[in-house]
Design brief:
- The complex is a heterodimer of chains A (818) and B (305).
- With 818 residues, chain A is of the alpha/beta class.
- Chain A folds into 5 domains: 222 residues, P-loop containing nucleotide triphosphate hydrolases (Rossmann fold, 3-Layer(aba) Sandwich); 204 residues, P-loop containing nucleotide triphosphate hydrolases (Rossmann fold, 3-Layer(aba) Sandwich), CATH 3.40.50; 66 residues; 61 residues, no CATH class; 169 residues, no CATH class.
- Chain A is built from 25 helices and 30 strands.
- By secondary structure, chain B is α+β, with helices and mostly antiparallel strands.
- Chain B has a single domain, classed as 2-Layer Sandwich (Nucleotidyltransferase, domain 5), CATH 3.30.420.
- Helices cover 34% and strands 17% of the residues of chain B.
- In chain B, the strands form 2 sheets. A 7-stranded mixed beta sheet of chain B has the order 1-2-7-6-5-8-9, sandwiched between helices.
- In chain B, a hairpin with a 5-residue loop joins strand 6 and strand 7.
- About 4% of the residues of chain B have low confidence.
- Classes of the chains: A alpha/beta (818), B alpha+beta (305).
- At the A-B interface, helix 18, helix 19, strand 18 and strand 19 of A face helix 1, helix 5 and helix 8 of B.
């Protein structure tokens, strides 16, 4: 923590912030079209006034833990790159972009020089131009012969971008086309599109199942493919990102087969290690463009920590309720406000409340809108347009508005709860801030370790990103599944030295291909080449998200309609017989769980309780791969483990009071996975000196797991936890954090590298938490960790964090510390 | 190659989903060549080599109730009408190249393989008559694919007309995909193509349980297959062959041969649709009522859409 600037006391005058690129914004995704125009310039006073009003508010003011401001910043415009076709320069000039920002010019120069580029400037800094201009140039230079493939993480984004691009092409007076190719594209026009489009906009799923396996139909595209554009690459991480990296290896192999070597144009939110991320994703060294040259108005930031209701229990006021209170001060006709909530139901609840209160806010109810994924496309387009035109004054949204859908720039963003990672935080904050006008972003902290950490350390948000992305395309499961798909698409050839080229650095590739040939009988090896032979279409059975295809479907027993879906491991505790399954505030009781057929049947009931299942987790070490130790004190390991999870019984817990009103047994087979884990092992005498007991160890583990998203990009539930007070493998206390994904998701190596920071953050949270004996915002409630649990966890964390970190000296993975 | 007991193999066995149905692994037969269908010869070209079998059928060869020679009396005009394709008007049906493929499955995509391609055509015979020559190109393995496709492309390009059953929807696209895969030219684009599936459906669909070739040949040609291996088992037969068990391959060749001969018979039949009888005066087989109704509809000027 020592690297961070000293926390700014809440009573300080507004403090200028000079922390670099992360704070500067400009208009919106369509900055190409608008950045030079004098758009909607209004008086710059109202947000400043609002900030003063909030700071001095008698009831609310003291709940703001920090205020920060990034001062107004002038844009850095430069000349257009000399190599850029004058017709493209003219196109942008007509659209009001007289001169590009410095980062745009640099990105274009790199691209035109044939280099792969990653642009990591913030939301709304005009990234679209960075990749549109080079693509247009390639079309002009080849008279429409060149092709480009654009990949977006969501469908809505590709639709948006396709119409932008088609406008640019028609402004150039050329007969070329871009088109969106996704699940909605009608089969009857697919062929025409394939043959006639210069630019194909698609998403990772369509590329994986629809385009690559059918590459002969797309031979013209691949043969002339010059650019692969990938937007929002920070979203490509974890199992999903690792699979997409595999999809990209397949793409490049196919392009090479048809004689093309396309370049990558990537864009991203700021990342901990952008070049490493890009390398893992596309397998190349890319040029990084991260100096934002766009301008912005002054940007105010505040973290709002809801008041404590109960000191002992550490209970704070509900974040959504506090959002309502803040809305009364914030919302009004003078500016546009966006609320980000993390659940769909919260969108509806808050929207309804704000519509009802519209009159008091000086608004008409129709100026308040909700927005989330489940809305129909027409409705969403209408709301987006209302936002762009300034007609919608308040919008309550899920992350559906987080990525670059064009809604213009708003004035105030209220984040109800931390979205789980810095990139999302900045994407959401990036929705506000116009060039000539001040903006405000407020984060409302929940009773959650990460949120409370941020309330105490808002500087974390403003410093360089610290979450490491886990991106491991060479993870054995991911690699094998992607190799299967790749082998279907093109044969693999064995080099003279027995290696296989073109699918990443892993030395396991030939061994996996042999396995797929000899045991799965999908391939046949002849003349040093592995050929696909089987009657199968592997992409249909390989899910990019890494979930096994046997998710459990939750069905209404009366109508037989699906009401939900849950992954295999979660099903043990969520849809066992007798469980209460909740969907958007409605409660369903599971009547039957057909485990073999992956279906649970539920009946809607009106209950005053929910259920909590208990599981026994047994973790067995199979093989250790990496180790480090602080000699005679503690050691860390990374390796393969076998995890057996058995649901044992469930409690019925009354809503609100949390009192237990009954219990039942769960009779389900155990779930078993082979995965990868991080282990923290304590020496016996150290544990004895620290008076470590099982409940303390568990509370500490829970806390470390829950702060993990601060340092690695994941959700707490992506990590499994097993706290063993005497591990069979190590014969001492061991705490395991494992990837809750069969085969591993690449998180454990990241935990191994970042474990000191995780322990440090856990200590900070436990120390700063006002509760006496533990609460949900730190080690867990006292009735779970015991009356001495919090003190014990603090003691152990202090011991671990104090002093130097472990080193690999004198330790061997085959030889646990003795 | 990694030994079956190496650590990677052990790990893969643990973490990869096991194949849906365990594949039986029987010992390969002693000699591959001994088990191969007879009369296969190796054909070579610049792209490599593959195996092929050529079989000649005399003009008087009977397929069901029709002689192959009866195609001489098929009328292009009738075919153009029932196929709704004026491009067929000026083409002699017996000049057609009859085409049918067997694949490793119905899934399609880059991993689809046409392991057996049958091309049949009438050729001049010594006695001044014509004979029907059936050529079946066969892959010993996926490595032969390019060489086979080069030869198929050459033959198709030279033909004035291609005749298939459901080939406009299946065979053509499979071959085109693989030709593009190998960056070879695609000969089908402007090639007249008579796909017998649609006319058969139009004329007799209402009277028959389904539109499959086996149904049509039985109803229209009176052809009953002997000891037939259903087409759906062809992929497994080829995979067996690749694994060293060639015992069902001869049946695949026979099935594919019968498919192709049925194409000839169906052209002979459909080319007499308007006449309603064969050249020798025998009435056409098949349900005359549905045929006449369909013909009425086909003759009516098409409504503008």
């Amino acid at each position: 923590m020592s690297r961070d600037p000293a926390p700014v006391p809440p009573t300080d005058p507004l403090t200028p912030l000079h922390s670099g690129g992360a704070l500067r914004r400009d208009d919106d995704k369509s900055a190409d079209a608008t950045q030079g125009g004098a758009r909607r310039a209004r008086a710059s006073s109202s947000v400043e006034e609002l900030v003063e009003r909030l700071r001095s508010d008698a009831a609310l003011g003291r709940n703001f833990s920090r205020w920060r401001v990034a001062p107004q910043r002038a844009p850095q415009a430069v000349d257009w790159p000399a190599a850029l076709d004058p017709r493209i320069v003219e196109l942008y000039r007509r659209r009001g972009v007289e001169r590009p920002y410095a980062h745009q010019a640099r990105a274009i120069e790199h691209a035109l020089a044939g280099r792969d580029v990653l642009v990591t400037t913030p939301t709304a800094s005009g990234k679209t131009l960075c990749y549109t201009a080079p693509v247009l140039q390639s079309l002009l230079a080849s008279r429409g012969q060149a092709r480009a493939l654009w990949m977006f993480p969501t469908k809505a984004l590709s639709q948006d971008q396709s119409s932008n691009l088609n406008r640019a092409i028609s402004d150039l007076g050329e007969p070329w086309h871009s088109f969106t190719y996704d699940g909605d594209t009608s089969p009857s026009i697919r062929r025409t599109l394939r043959e006639r489009g210069q630019v194909v906009l698609t998403n990772p799923w369509m590329l994986h199942t629809g385009i690559l396996p059918h590459h002969p139909k797309w031979a013209d595209l691949f043969r002339r493919l010059e650019y692969v554009v990938i937007d929002e690459v920070h979203t490509l991480c974890g199992v999903f990102g690792s699979n997409v990296a595999g999809v990209l290896r397949r793409l490049m192999r196919i392009a090479a087969h048809y004689g093309a070597r396309p370049r990558f144009l990537l864009s991203s939110a700021t990342l901990h290690d952008p070049l490493g991320h890009a390398r893992a994703l596309v397998g190349r060294e890319v040029e990084l463009v991260d100096q934002d040259g766009s301008g912005s108005g002054a940007r105010h930031f505040a973290v709002y920590n809801p008041p404590l209701l109960d000191d002992v229990a550490g209970l704070r006021a509900n974040a959504l309720e506090e959002a309502r209170r803040l809305a009364q001060q914030i919302c009004g006709p003078a500016h546009q406000t966006i609320f980000f909530v993390n659940r769909r139901t919260a969108v509806e609840v808050l929207t309804r409340y704000l519509k009802e209160a519209a009159g008091e806010l000086g608004l008409r109810p129709e100026e308040v809108r909700g927005y989330r994924g489940g809305y129909l496309p027409d409705l969403r387009r209408e709301i987006e347009q209302g936002l762009r035109r300034g007609e919608v004054k308040v919008v309550v949204s899920t992350n559906a508005l987080e990525l670059g859908i064009d809604i213009g720039a708003l004035d105030v963003a209220v984040l109800v709860g931390y979205p789980g990672n810095q990139a999302s935080f900045w994407q959401r904050a990036g929705r506000v801030g116009r060039r000539a006008r001040a903006s405000l972003t407020v984060l409302i902290a929940r009773s959650d370790p990460v949120d409370q950490y941020l309330a105490a350390h808002p500087e974390y948000l403003f410093a360089a990103p610290r979450e490491r992305t886990a991106l491991d395309p060479d993870n054995l499961v991911t690699l094998s599944e992607q190799l299967k798909c790749a082998a279907f698409e093109l044969p693999f050839r064995e080099e003279d030295d027995g290696s296989v080229r073109g699918f990443g650095p892993s030395s396991n590739v030939p061994g996996i291909l042999d396995y797929l040939a000899e045991e799965s009988q999908l391939l046949q090896k002849r003349e040093r080449t592995w050929f696909w032979i089987a009657d199968a279409y592997p992409a249909h059975h390989v899910s990019l998200a890494g979930n096994e295809p046997d998710n459990v479907l939750v069905l209404d027993s009366e109508t037989d309609k699906a009401i939900g879906e849950i992954d295999r491991e979660g099903s043990l505790t969520a849809v066992h017989e007798g469980a209460i399954y909740q969907v958007e505030g409605r409660t369903w009781k599971i009547e039957r769980f057909d485990y073999a057929n992956r279906r649970a049947y539920a009946r809607e009931v009106d209950t005053d309780y929910y259920t909590e299942a208990e599981t026994d987790t047994d973790l067995r070490v199979l093989r250790l791969e990496q180790a480090a130790q602080r000699a005679g004190d503690y050691a860390i390991f990374r390796g393969e483990v076998h995890v057996t999870t058995q649901a044992t019984l469930f409690k019925k817990v009354r809503f609100y009071t949390r009192e237990s009103v009954g219990a039942g047994q769960i009779h389900l087979p155990a779930e078993e996975i082979d995965t990868e884990a991080f282990a923290l092992v304590l020496e016996e005498d150290v544990a004895a000196r620290l008076e470590l007991d099982g409940a303390t160890w568990h509370g500490l583990g829970m806390l470390v797991r829950r702060v993990a998203p601060l340092y690695l990009r994941c959700q707490p539930q992506d990590l499994g936890l097993s706290c063993q007070i005497r591990s069979a493998h190590f014969s001492r206390p061991a705490l395991f954090l494992y990837d809750r994904m069969h085969g591993g998701a690449g998180l454990s190596p990241v935990v191994f590298r970042a474990h000191r920071e995780l322990l440090g953050a856990a200590l900070e949270v436990a120390r700063a938490c006002p509760c006496r004996d533990g609460c949900p915002a730190c080690v867990g409630p006292a009735d779970e960790v015991g009356p001495l649990g919090k003190a014990g966890a603090l003691r152990v964390l202090e011991h671990l964090v104090d002093g130097p970190g472990p080193t690999s000296a004198g330790i061997d993975v085959f030889d646990p510390p003795s | 190659m990694s030994a079956p007991s190496d650590p990677l193999r052990e790990r893969l066995r643990r973490i990869l989903p096991s194949p849906a149905a365990p594949v039986e692994r029987t010992a390969a037969s002693a000699s591959l060549a001994a088990a191969l269908p007879s009369a296969l010869v190796e054909e070579c070209n610049a792209a490599g080599s593959f195996l092929a079998r050529t079989t000649r059928f005399g003009a008087t060869h009977r397929h069901g109730e029709l002689e192959l020679a009866s195609i001489e009396h098929a009328r292009a005009a009738d075919l153009a009408l029932v196929a709704r394709d004026p491009a067929l008007q000026g083409l002699a049906p017996r000049d057609g190249l009859f085409l049918d493929i067997e694949t490793n499955g119905l899934q399609g995509g880059a991993g689809g393989i046409a392991f057996l391609v049958a091309l049949g055509a009438f050729v001049p015979a010594p006695a001044g008559e014509r004979a029907f020559e059936l050529w079946q190109g066969f892959l010993r393995g996926p490595a032969d694919e390019r060489a086979l496709l080069v030869e198929v492309e050459r033959r198709v390009r030279a033909a004035p007309l291609v005749v298939t059953f459901f080939g406009k929807s299946f065979d053509r696209h499979r071959l085109e995909d693989k030709l593009r895969f190998h960056s070879l030219p695609t000969p089908f684009s402007d090639k007249p193509h008579l796909d017998l599936y649609w006319p058969c459906r139009r004329l007799y669909g209402a009277a028959l349980p389904n539109g499959r070739l086996a149904t049509m040949e039985r109803a229209l040609l009176g052809f009953e297959r002997q000891d037939d291996l259903p087409g759906s088992l062809a992929p497994a037969a080829w995979l067996d062959f690749l694994a060293g068990r060639a015992h069902r391959l001869e049946q695949v060749f026979a099935h594919n041969r019968d498919d192709l001969l049925s194409l000839v018979g169906l052209v002979a039949h459909l080319g007499r649709a308007e006449a309603g009888e064969l050249a020798d005066g025998r009435p056409l087989a098949g349900n005359a009522e549905t045929r006449l109704q369909a013909l009425d509809k086909l003759r009516a000027p098409r409504r503008r859409r």
